[in-house]
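Sequence and structure are kept together here, with a separate record for every protein. An example record follows, reproduced without changes.
>
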Amino acid sequence: MLFKSDAPTSRPPRVALSCIAWGFMFSLAWLGYAQSASAEFFTFSTTLLTPASPVSLGGGVTVSLDPQSIDTPGDNIDASFPGTGIVFGSISVAGLTSANPASSIPITIPYTFRVSISNYLTDSDLVATGTTDFDVSGTLGGTVGAGKKVNITNVPTLPSILHTISGEDYLMDLFSYVPPGARSTNPGAFGAHVLVRVPEPSTLALLSFAALALATPAYRRWRRKTPRVSG
């Protein structure tokens, strides 16, 4: 014959249940991200949307903006931490000669480059998992001329752009700029820093184990206080 204690049956403390639930969810997250953590390779292609290049400043002097690209799958770039620097465009000045120094010409040239980034799982894959466009805008200012001198500055509209490609966060920031020289053989460059922000599986695993460690003592205390059925 079985006898049951008259003491009310207690329930597991809410803290323990919460910790167990969080530990389970972190474990699932870790398993999911462990598969995608290696997706840190990309190629890019660039298109100049505006302005129409070259831009004429008069007197035969022009400013040219040209897109740069690495769009061959075999040239995949590894953007794992701390990231990768890319050059997505160039700028050059032509028409300044000793016979045509051109007086100092102030310039204001708004521009927009479209940098299309394609994500790859490994550095040897031939098929991208996804592609997203980063529109990089800004304004070229300064002066051109005055005895073959070039003083062109660049002010980007946004200091950083974040897009998600195939579940990976691609952050393009720290736009760098190298001004051009007075000769067409001395072009300047538009650059950016690309970083793929991928959560580390080890971090998620530690969070999961920590949650489970917190839940275990509370669960054991509840088990000791719960009356057992005797026979």
About this structure: Residues 201-225 form the longest helix (25 residues).
